[in-house]
Amino acid sequence: MAPTTRPDEKKTDDYGIERAYADEPDAVDKVREKSGFIDHIMKMLDRYGSEGGNQFAAGITYFSVLALFPIFMLTVAAAATVLANRPDLMQQLEEQIANAVSGDLGNSITELLHTAIEQRGAMYGIGGLTTLWSGLGWMNNLRIGISAMWMQDPTDAPGNFVTKKLSDLLGLIGLLVAMVIAFGVTAAGSSGLTQKIFEWVGIESFPGMGTVLVLAGIVIGLIANFLVFWWMVAFLPRTKVPTKSGLMGAAIGAVLFEAIKQLSTVIMSSAAGNPAGAVFGPVIVLMVVMYLVWRVVLYVSAWTATTEESLELLVPPVPDQAVIRVRNEIRQGPNTGVTLGAGAALGAAAAGAWALLRRK
Fold it and tell me: Does 280 or 256 have the greater pLDDT score?
């Protein structure tokens, strides 16, 4: 009976290979083995870097800034429609312009306002078409970037070109609605609405009211941010997102998004303090804030995609089929029989010559 051997489990690696000496883990690996949180962070960073997170963030920033201008045109057209139907508001606005800006500049602004009212139909048409084109490009790149954090190829999603564009359109509308709600709630929380609510219920003041109002504004902003990130993290990827991981990712994104909004407010106020900053500051701050926001979105998506329950849903890629190529080789020269015959003849001749030498 042939002897059998078994591998030493203590020296067997993750691939089932027994090694004479185990690889000594470095300091980072030791920390990852002790802390599951640090291990998750490292997985997130690895997923973000390997899938090109920075490149996706830059591309999404470009399309998002590009989409803002036609959206602004639609906003101006909507405001012009309201002013055209409300002459009293138009007169009040003209009086405010005349009081704030005098001279030729005030007249130019008033003429520009009348021109916008007269050409609101053209602004609706041009703004709508360009918003549709740039907005779909924005949503498509956003979905590609978020899906990449899940190691999913968006081109493999079911459906044809039309259904995918309709899905992108619905995603764009949902994202815009969520953002409007988020920024509207944040603006309402920071505009003194909370204090007015206290006054309506009969509470004019109490000790620590200022702190409560600030905290209430932050909490309201976090709730609004959570809605935005929940939409992007859970519904935009072209794959199934576990509910628990999606909720935790949306909560983390809400906190980071609120920090970015507070930082952008500080930067904007400081940039408005000098003439050069007042001219170029808003555009630069907008691009920087957009880039930071989309990086946070992709980081949160990578974090959500690397939780234990998300990794269990990951289907490993199927390797390519093995191709066996049979190669026929033709060698030039004598065949095997001729070679063996020649060798036997030479051997017999050598043996005969040796026998004759011994007789002598």
Answer: 256
At 202, is the secondary structure helix, strand, or coil? Answer: coil
Give backbone dihedrals phi and psi of 12, rounded to 5 degrees, phi first.
-90, 130
Helix, strand, or coil here: 326? coil
| DSSP reduced 3-state for 331 | coil
DSSP assignments along 178-218, one per residue: HHHHHHHHHHHHHTTHHHHHHHHTT----TTHHHHHHHHHH
Integer Cα distance of 132 and 139 in angstroms: 10
Which single residue is written with the structure tokens 């949902």? 174
Q: Which amino acid is at 58?
A: A
- Which residues, in sequence order, are CB contacts of 81 under 8 Å at separation 6+? 120
Q: Three-state DSSP class for 103?
A: coil
CB 294 within 8 A of CB 61: yes
> For residue range 73-95, what is the model confidence (pLDDT) as tens digits?
888 888 888 888 888 887 787 77
Q: Which amino acid is present at 324?
A: I
- Integer-rounded Cα Rg, in Å, for the chain is 36
Give the C-alpha separation, 354 to 342, whole Å: 19
Asked whether the CA dihedral 320, 322, 328, 331 is positive or negative, the reply is positive
d(CA 261, CA 350): 99
pTM for the model stands at: 0.71
Please report, to the nearest 10 degrees, the dihedral formed by the alpha carbons of residues 324, 330, 336, 337 taken in order: 120
Q: What are phi and psi of 114, to 5 degrees?
A: -65, -40
Averaged pLDDT, 32-37: 82
Minimal CA–CA distance to 182: which of 260, 81, 105? 260
- Per-residue b/e over 125-135, b at no fewer than 16 CB within 10 Å? eebeebbeebb
> How far is Cα 177 from Cα 171, in angstroms, rounded to an integer?
10
Mean pLDDT of 17-34: 70
Confidence class of residue 306 from pLDDT cuts 50, 70 and 90? very high
- Determine the Cα–Cα distance for residues 232 and 295; give it in Å rounded to an integer: 13
pLDDT at 231 over 70: yes
CA–CA separation, 137 and 133 (whole Å): 6
